[in-house]
């Protein structure tokens, strides 16, 4: 087997697709490239195309309301980190401020630096930069 493949897409389940679509459209500064019911009818998906061919999807499952608020401490997803350069962290911090998105500021560790924030459902997100 050759190299382990990179991620093709990430999809998160949201409670209010309209609210989340507006929020992520503002964050990504672009609209979705796909917005349709999945062929089985089990869920609706709204998909954004990010740099490097990565897709980011929002799912709203049919007939299912929110069961609980997202918590990184529970089994499942902890957070999603978007890769950036160290030099770009201040720009991302200002962008989050401009969008009115609360965040924890730039934090530094020996393995890299990042800015943590949450989407409307409380899903943990981060801009992360490996050390230069």
Q: Which keywords apply here?
A:
Signal recognition particle alu RNA binding heterodimer, srp9/1, 4-stranded mixed sheet, single chain, alpha/beta, 132 residues, globular, 2,3-Dihydroxybiphenyl 1,2-Dioxygenase, domain 1, 2 helices
Walkthrough of the structure:
Strand 7 (112-118) and strand 8 form a beta hairpin. Helices cover 17% and strands 36% of the residues. The strands form 2 sheets. The protein has a 4-stranded mixed β-sheet with strand order 1-4-3-2, with helices on one face. The model has no long low-confidence stretch (mean pLDDT 91). The protein has 2 domains: 1-63, Signal recognition particle alu RNA binding heterodimer, srp9/1; 78-132, 2,3-Dihydroxybiphenyl 1,2-Dioxygenase, domain 1 (Roll), CATH 3.10.180. The protein is an alpha/beta fold and 132 residues long.
Tell me the distance between the termini. Answer: 30 Å
How much of the residues is beta strand, in percent? 35-45%
CA-based shape = globular
The number of domains is: 2
Q: How would you sum up the major sheet? A: 4 strands, mixed
CATH class of the largest domain: Alpha Beta
Instruction: Provide the gyration radius in Å.
Output: 16 Å
Q: What is the residue-mean pLDDT, rounded to a whole number?
A: 91
The number of helical runs is: 2
Uncertain parts? none
Number of strands: 8
**Reported CATH architecture of the largest domain:** 2-Layer Sandwich
Q: Please identify the structural class as seen in this structure.
A: alpha/beta
The level of helicity is 10-25%
Remind me, CATH topology of the largest domain? Signal recognition particle alu RNA binding heterodimer, srp9/1
List the strand order in the largest sheet: 1-4-3-2
Oligomer: single chain
Which series of helices and strands comes N to C?
EHEEEEHEEE
């Amino acid at each position: 087997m050759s190299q382990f493949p990179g991620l093709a897409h990430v999809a998160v389940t949201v409670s209010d697709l309209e609210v989340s679509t507006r929020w992520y459209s503002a964050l990504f500064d672009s609209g979705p490239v796909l917005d349709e019911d999945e062929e089985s009818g089990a869920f609706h998906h709204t998909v954004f195309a990010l740099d490097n061919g990565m897709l980011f999807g929002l799912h709203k499952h049919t007939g299912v309301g929110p069961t609980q608020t997202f918590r990184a401490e529970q089994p499942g997803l902890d957070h999603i980190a978007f890769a950036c350069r160290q030099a770009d962290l201040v720009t991302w911090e200002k962008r989050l401020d401009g969008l009115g998105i609360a965040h924890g500021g730039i934090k530094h560790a020996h393995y890299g630096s990042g800015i943590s924030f949450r989407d409307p459902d409380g899903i943990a997100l981060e801009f992360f930069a490996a050390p230069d």
